[in-house]
Amino acid sequence: MDLNSPKKIVFFGDSVTEGCFELYPTSYGFDTVRHPDKAYPSLVTHVLKEKYGENIISINAGLSGDSSKNGLERTERDVLSHKPDIVTIAFGLNDIFRPEHFEKSINGILEKITASGAKAVLVTPNMLNTYIHEETLPSALKVARTAMAAQTDGTLDQIYLQSLFAAKHFGAEVCDVYLFWKNLYFQGVDITSLLVNKINHPCEKMHIKTAEMLLQTIEKL
Length: 221
What we know:
By secondary structure, the chain is an alpha/beta fold. Helix content is 43%, strand content 18%. The protein has one domain: 3-Layer(aba) Sandwich (Rossmann fold), CATH 3.40.50. The strands form two sheets. The protein has a five-stranded parallel beta sheet, sandwiched between helices. Strands 2-3 form a two-stranded antiparallel ribbon.
């Protein structure tokens, strides 16, 4: 794909895509600190604009708390309405709460996007916490326990595999963030320490790594 001609990119996903980082307590439990300028979509956009100038137009369609099922419901409104040339798709972390919906939903998203003529890039999720960190916000402990279980009992692994099968079926490119994190884990890296909310939001360093990987994928389209 010639990035020297005008191209519109939509970054589609959940809180990681939106740019959510630490959690803070509220009267209703907790909420998240948002730094979209530090998230991988902004980092990718910055580098592409440096290389290709104003030919690059980007839209961040990340939404905190979103699952693939929710994403499928808003694909037309938040993605296809922009008539994108490239769409990156990053779901899975919130699907641990209803994993039975993931396979159908991720296939539905990819079907809609590829049918529109846009190039689809599947971004696999980062890992979740593997233990309950002492810095976990008390009001988020229930979520942290659910996330830990999904990471250690194979639920997120299954979501990951289903996403790879869907990408292959629809001819989407894959930016394999999950494999990168898994390799770190098998090297003995403390994965939970790389999550700023100690559950599912990666630190700035890992956003930078995702951006580097995604840039390579986009420039090869």
